[in-house]
Write a structure and sequence with these properties.
This protein is α/β, with parallel strands linked by helices. It is built from seven helices and seven strands, in the order E-H-E-H-E-H-E-H-E-H-E-H-H-E. A seven-stranded parallel sheet has the order 3-2-1-4-5-6-7, with helices on both faces. Strand 2, helix 2 and strand 3 form a beta-alpha-beta unit. The longest helix has 29 residues. The chain starts with 10 loop residues before the first strand and ends with a strand.
């Protein structure tokens, strides 16, 4: 689906914005007039992404570990200082660990849970009071079709993505009457570095297709009800 809505005057914060879906989404929002803030853990990759994105509009970014609550609150503070508001939050940052669960290292399990679940909750928790005070905003949680059914060798990832579906539903009940919209996206295979990590091949939906769907949800005429997830696949 194509969304040519104008996001002029709006500010979008995207976690995990230096590559893949996050980068494509940042570029798409910039081209539609939004001002964009991104974060990533890799400083060099973040700087390279910002250098490229600056050609499309007003963008800023800061190195951030979304599993660190103090770092996330600082990210939100910096975004508000730089742009004055946050209209859309895209919780995109994610990690994947592949292997039989009984053989997986605890540190890898922790990383998946901390980034995928805590990172989403932390960013939303930090941004939400600002949106509620203003009486408007949109939160988009990037889940997966593996948040709707389980698959062998990616159990922690499945657990984390199931959690995001439940979080989307629960949060919606709390904020839907306060002007804040909450959506999820359940994605099929996307042609990103994570897909290479999982399958060894870059296959699936181009990130640009996913970005178009994210803009559709953030726009004035989303195709689904708040609190539900948009199944996105080719």
């Amino acid at each position: 689906m194509s969304n040519q809505r104008n996001f002029s005057g709006q500010v979008v914060l995207i976690t995990g914005g230096s590559r893949g879906i996050g980068y494509a989404t940042a570029e798409a929002f910039l081209k539609q007039g939004a001002r964009v803030a991104i974060c990533a853990t890799d400083k060099d990759r973040l700087r390279n992404a910002l250098d490229q994105l600056e050609a499309h509009g007003d963008v800023a970014g800061w190195p951030t570990d979304v599993s660190d609550y103090s770092a996330v609150t600082k990210l939100v503070e910096l975004t508000l200082e730089r742009f004055g508001r946050i209209d859309v939050l895209v919780n995109n940052a994610a990690r994947l660990a592949v292997g039989n669960f009984a053989e997986q290292d605890q540190a890898k399990i922790d990383e998946v849970i901390n980034v995928n679940i805590k990172g989403t909750l932390y960013a939303t928790h930090a941004v939400l009071p600002h949106m509620l005070k203003r009486g408007s905003g949109c939160v988009i949680n990037i889940s997966s079709l593996l948040g709707t059914f389980g698959m062998a060798r990616v159990a922690p990832y499945c657990a984390s993505k199931f959690a995001l579906v439940g979080f989307t539903q629960a949060l919606n009940h709390e904020v839907k009457d306060a002007g804040v919209r909450v959506y999820g996206m359940t994605l099929s295979m996307s042609a990103t570095d994570m897909q290479v990590q999982f399958s060894g091949y870059r296959q699936g939906m181009p990130p640009e297709i996913v970005a178009e769907e994210i803009l559709l949800l953030a726009g004035p005429n989303p195709p689904i009800e708040t609190g539900t997830c948009l199944d996105t696949y080719l």
